[in-house]
Amino acid sequence: MVAFAKDFPDDAELARLVAAFDAGDYRTVRDGAPKLAERTLNPLVRRAALDLRRRLDPDPVQLYLLGLTGALLTFLTVWFYLHKP
């Protein structure tokens, strides 16, 4: 079992999603976690399901660095073609 999930509440559906996450079945987690969060009445299970789903999203810093890398590549390409001898 993944370490961050040790404090999750005891719920059979949530345990199935954590097992899928641990096995690398991210499609099941991506599809099942929001559905579980919608239909559960327990706020702790809802929070845990949404946290599990959030862990599949890319890190905002990585997205920023990817955009910065793309901008730098574009700049260097344009610079090269405009300053060719």
Protein described:
The structure is a single chain. This protein is mainly alpha-helical and 85 residues long. The protein has 2 domains: 1-54, no CATH class; 59-85. 72% of the residues lie in helices and 0% in strands. It has 4 helices and no strands. It has helices at residues 12-23, 26-39, 43-54, 60-82. The radius of gyration is 20 Å and the shape is rod-shaped. It starts with 11 loop residues before the first helix and ends with a helix. The mean pLDDT is 93.
Keyword list:
single chain; 85 residues; 2 domains
What is the gyration radius calculated from CA atoms? 20 Å
Helical content band = over 70%
Number of helices: 4
Distance between the termini: 60 Å
For this structure, the quaternary state is single chain
How would you sum up this structure in a few lines?
The chain is mostly helical.
Helices and strands in order:
Elements: H1 12-23, H2 26-39, H3 43-54, H4 60-82
Helix pairs in contact: 1-2, 1-3, 2-3
